[in-house]
């Protein structure tokens, strides 16, 4: 795909302009963490485009934690159609990879999820290369690069004076065309970007090495061989069943429907759910295929490293390491993966 | 308005039939016909309260209304049991894979049902009887715990016993009899002991509580059915019904979209199937 160069003042101008069409969110730093905040009217403001992923995944912009999904027995129905579309600026490679899972689940026919599909269709994704890695990052261990290769409309690779803007879709191409005077040729900058990427990848690979994660292609078989192992009981010893790992995971997509009464009818809510919770697979009458916490823990890895590998040819894990940060029981997915070996 | 698969269709409760102390059949008329096939399920909601999946038990050839047979087992089913004629509920569906009737053509078909598991099998039985000329024979084995637990009593004990068609047979058994019971006593698996069926040209379909499904399946294997001749209706926790919410995963399948009807050979390797 074509690449251009855009300097920092021009990117600010572009963002200001886009904010007339989109609600724009970008990572803003607080202490040493990054959180998505609404930006745009004043350009990029305080946001950090490069560096490393934000604390929260971007799934919430497309599939909110708690959202009204239907109003019923009233004539007007319900849709989000009138809402302004969302543009994310500064999403990272691990975030984009999670779209592979989410899109498979939510855009799959014959029952497309209309709200998710609409947000994806209308939304804009301007991603960026990581220029740092976090302590819990391990994307490269599962062959995901710390810079986006696909799944973006435009990707920004930060350089001293500006960014290389790589076009990844028709939507991205149209933006560059519409604001062509803000861009210039990228040729002089490409080599510098490639050097930066190579350096970060090597540094992160070195960092990840000490976790002892098995080779990516051996993980599924290793998981299967440990299905009946005591590993799951051991790993789940410190699990307090809070579901934080599910909530913070960019690729966890499970939800539950809840109904409630409203003044003029009823509404149905869709809320994120957690497979670590006892009630997740329980049926009426009390039968439960996963009564044991160890089995629910195993199920989480089964879904991520076995089910999704078979169904869509990739893991339901992006190597972002968010679950490691979120777990009050200090359960470390890297360690669990390393213990699949042998 | 966008097409929304989570939106229930307004539905009137036409009638409530008490089948047993814990089981009722609800006759429902949705504003828009659902057109289900035997084995597919629907999501039924109590407005503002919640939703649960059920497999219709009426004939799929009946277009303007459908019946669901529901055991009082949890929060939603308890509310459903309080429904009266004229009440409003919500329906979504139909969802999932139906019984593959074309694969059953020309065959000797054995249905094995236990308790409220007779519900999907009644829809299947009625569909088979509707086109009985396509099938070699139908044997329906119905098991219940006690005589008072038998559902569809007027059908299984009377109407279906007198269908006047040699191709059709209905066997009824109870685990424990009472003074009034003159019929067979024993687990439903005992009705499978003396089958006059050409196994090579037969299929069997099982539905019931997990423990009954397990032992019925093992019994069928013991009498000579091959895994690929056994069809099971799997019950799992389902919320969305359309393969998205993740609750009903069964190995690499979702019971809601790849099932609930599964051929046993496709799922026999999966841990958790009988739990």
Written account of the structure:
The complex is a heterodimer of chains A (342) and B (275). Chain A has 342 residues and is α/β, with parallel strands linked by helices. Chain A has helices at residues 8-18, 59-62, 93-106, 114-122, 170-178, 187-209, 216-225, 231-235, 244-248, 293-312, 322-326, 333-338; strands spanning 3-7, 23-30, 33-39, 66-72, 86-91, 124-128, 154-158, 162-167, 184-185, 255-262, 265-272. Chain A has 2 domains: 3-67 and 77-209, no CATH class; 216-255 and 275-338, no CATH class. In chain A, a hairpin with a 2-residue loop joins strand 10 and strand 11 (265-272). The longest helix of chain A is centred in the middle third of the chain and has 23 residues, at 187-209. Chain A is globular and about 65 Å long. Chain B is α/β, with parallel strands linked by helices and 275 residues long. Chain B folds into 2 domains: 9-95, Elongation Factor Tu (Ef-tu), domain 3 (Beta Barrel); 101-233, 3-Layer(aba) Sandwich (Rossmann fold). Chain B has 7 helices and 15 strands. Chain B is globular and about 50 Å long. The termini of chain B are far apart. The chains are: A alpha/beta (342), B alpha/beta (275). Chains A and B meet through strand 4, strand 10, strand 11 and helix 10 of A and strand 4 and helix 1 of B.
Give a topology summary:
The complex is a heterodimer of chains A (342) and B (275).
Chain A: E1 3-7, H1 8-18, E2 23-30, E3 33-39, H2 59-62, E4 66-72, E5 86-91, H3 93-106, H4 114-122, E6 124-128, E7 154-158, E8 162-167, H5 170-178, E9 184-185, H6 187-209, H7 216-225, H8 231-235, H9 244-248, E10 255-262, E11 265-272, H10 293-312, H11 322-326, H12 333-338
Parallel strand pairs in A: 2-5, 5-6, 6-7
Antiparallel strand pairs in A: 1-8, 1-9, 2-3, 4-11, 7-8, 10-11
Chain B: E1 9-18, E2 23-30, E3 41-46, E4 50-54, E5 66-71, H1 75-81, E6 88-95, H2 101-104, E7 108-114, H3 118-130, E8 137-144, H4 153-158, E9 168-174, E10 184-185, E11 202-207, H5 210-223, E12 230-233, E13 249-250, E14 253-254, H6 255-258, E15 261-263, H7 264-267
């Amino acid at each position: 795909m074509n690449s251009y160069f855009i300097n920092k003042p021009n990117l600010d101008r572009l963002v200001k302009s886009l904010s007339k069409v989109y609600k724009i969110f970008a990572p803003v730093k607080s202490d040493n963490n990054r959180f998505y905040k609404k930006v745009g009217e004043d350009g990029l403001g305080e946001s950090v485009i490069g560096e490393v992923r934000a604390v929260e995944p971007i799934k919430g912009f497309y599939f909110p934690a708690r959202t009204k999904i239907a109003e019923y027995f009233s004539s007007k129905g319900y849709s989000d159609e009138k809402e302004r579309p969302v543009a994310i600026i500064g999403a990272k490679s691990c975030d984009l990879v999670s779209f592979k899972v989410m899109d498979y689940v939510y855009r799959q026919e014959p029952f497309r999820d209309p709200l998710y599909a609409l947000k994806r269709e209308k939304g804009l994704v301007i991603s960026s290369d990581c220029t740092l890695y976090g302590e819990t990052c391990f994307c490269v261990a599962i062959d995901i690069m710390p810079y986006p290769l696909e799944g973006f409309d435009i990707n920004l690779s930060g350089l001293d004076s500006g960014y290389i803007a790589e076009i990844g879709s028709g939507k991205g191409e149209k933006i560059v065309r519409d604001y062509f005077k803000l861009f210039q040729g990228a040729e002089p900058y490409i080599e510098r970007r490639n050097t930066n990427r190579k350096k970060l990848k090597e540094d992160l690979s070195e960092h990840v090495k000490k976790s002892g994660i098995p080779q990516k292609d051996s993980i599924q078989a290793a998981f299967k061989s440990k299905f009946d192992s005591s590993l799951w009981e051991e790993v789940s010893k410190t699990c307090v069943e809070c579901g934080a790992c599910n909530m913070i995971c960019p690729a966890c997509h499970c939800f539950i429907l809840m109904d409630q009464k409203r003044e003029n009818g009823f509404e149905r809510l869709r809320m994120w759910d957690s497979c670590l919770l006892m009630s997740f697979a329980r049926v009426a009458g009390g039968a439960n295929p996963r009564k044991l916490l160890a089995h629910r823990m195993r199920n989480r890895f089964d879904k991520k490293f076995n089910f999704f590998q078979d169904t869509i040819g990739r893991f339901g894990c992006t190597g972002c390491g968010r679950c490691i940060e979120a777990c009050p029981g200090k359960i470390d997915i890297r360690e669990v993966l390393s213990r699949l070996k042998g | 308005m966008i097409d929304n698969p989570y939106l229930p269709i307004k539905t009137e409760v036409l009638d409530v039939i008490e089948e047993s102390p814990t089981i009722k059949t609800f006759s429902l008329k949705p504003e828009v016909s659902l057109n289900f096939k035997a084995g597919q399920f629907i999501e039924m909601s109590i407005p503002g309260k919640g939703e649960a999946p059920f497999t219709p038990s009426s004939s799929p050839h009946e277009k303007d209304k459908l019946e669901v047979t529901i055991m009082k087992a949890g929060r939603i089913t308890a509310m459903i049991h309080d429904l009266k004629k004229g009440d409003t509920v919500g329906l979504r569906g139909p969802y999932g894979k139906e019984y593959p009737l074309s694969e059953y053509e020309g065959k000797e078909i054995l249905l094995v049902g236990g308790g409220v598991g007779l519900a999907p099998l009644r829809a299947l039985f009625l569909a088979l009887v509707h086109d009985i000329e396509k099938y070699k024979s139908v044997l329906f084995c119905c098991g219940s715990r006690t005589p008072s637990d038998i559902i569809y009593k007027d059908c299984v004990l009377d109407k279906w016993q007198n269908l006047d068609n040699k191709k059709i047979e209905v066997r009824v058994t109870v685990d424990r009899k009472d003074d009034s019971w003159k019929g067979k006593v024993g687990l439903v698996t005992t009705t499978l002991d003396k089958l006059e069926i050409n196994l090579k040209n037969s299929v069997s379909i099982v539905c019931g509580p997990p423990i009954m499904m397990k032992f019925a399946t093992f019994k069928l294997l013991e009498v000579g059915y091959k895994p690929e001749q056994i069809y099971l209706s799997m019950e799992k926790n389902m919320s969305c019904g359309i393969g998205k919410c993740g609750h009903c995963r069964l190995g690499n399948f979702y019971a809601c979209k790849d099932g609930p009807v599964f051929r046993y050979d496709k799922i026999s390797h999966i841990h958790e199937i009988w739990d």
